[in-house]
Amino acid sequence: MATRAVTMQDVADHADVSRTVVSLVLNNRRSVHIAEETRGRVREAASKLGYRPNASARALARQRSDWYGLVTEIVTAPFAVEVIKGAQDRASLDGKYLLIASTDSDPDAETAAIEQLLEQRVEGLIYATTWHRPVTVPALAREVPTVLVNCFDVEGRFPSVVPDERAGGRRATERLLKAGHRRIGLLNLDPDIPATVGRRLGHHDALREAGIPIVDELEVSGHATADGGFVAAEALLNLSTPPTAIFCANDRMAMGAYDAIKERGLRIPSDVAVVGFDNQVLIASYLRPALTTIALPFALMGAQGVELLAAMAGGQPTTTQTVTIDCPLIERASV
Known about the structure:
This protein is of the alpha/beta class. It has three domains: 8-53, 434 Repressor (Amino-terminal Domain) (Orthogonal Bundle), CATH 1.10.260; 64-164 and 298-328, Response regulator (Rossmann fold), CATH 3.40.50.2300; 165-295, 3-Layer(aba) Sandwich (Rossmann fold), CATH 3.40.50.2300. A six-stranded parallel β-sheet has the order 2-1-3-4-5-11. The protein is elongated and about 90 Å long. The chain contains twelve helices and twelve strands. Helix 1 (8-15) packs across helix 2, helix 1 (8-15) crosses helix 3 and helix 5 (82-93) runs parallel beside helix 12 (298-313). This is LacI family DNA-binding transcriptional regulator.
């Protein structure tokens, strides 16, 4: 049998005061004079009875809830969960918490989730995705401050926080150039997604700055999987003059490239160096040799998303700016 929740009236009866006095004490209202002995008696009664304030009623009265809503597919994915940790850690600095709604990229589920979060009077929304892409956000999100993380609104209505794909691609190639490589292959992702475009542009930036021509045969696109990386790496290794280093546009493709290199009796990094992208730790740390890679800054993106949201909820002007977050190099042993 369920236990009845302790009410403010129960606390008042136990402390032998009025319900109004209990409300003033528990809401720390100092504008009304109440003896410290009475305040102490009320707090002691509330603690002894296990009283908890009604969050919904308090949110209604204060017109704020101390909650942010997070609408995301990430909770069902093995990747990008650091977005949630980064967002919660940053929110907690302001005494805020996250209400998380899992949607699995279903538009109807997203709309329903946002409706439920708005009913809980969240002060703002974070809309986050597993991989960097354009999205269409349900119109309901415009009712409160909303920030997109690892994605951007196709209509440009909301501010977004995304990884600096181009700078990351440049950094990966610069690492290979620093190791003395001049014939560098690129295993890229499926065409036209932001990661594909940005990482390729950064790769080209680094080559041009080093005075190295861009050679079409050294760039191969494939599926963003280990199998896709294996097939694409095979194509590069079959060239009459194969590359001495390969930049893989994600770590799963790098895992396939490792297999293609090793099947030919070649060694990493002495025969072929490899750099990945994403820093999927379960892959990058446990490949042999461990994979040098570019990290996607999921935790920082989540934290920056909440930083923007807090500013907007605090009344700062809403903008449709895009904030890019740097992608650092994680040095291991494959270069």
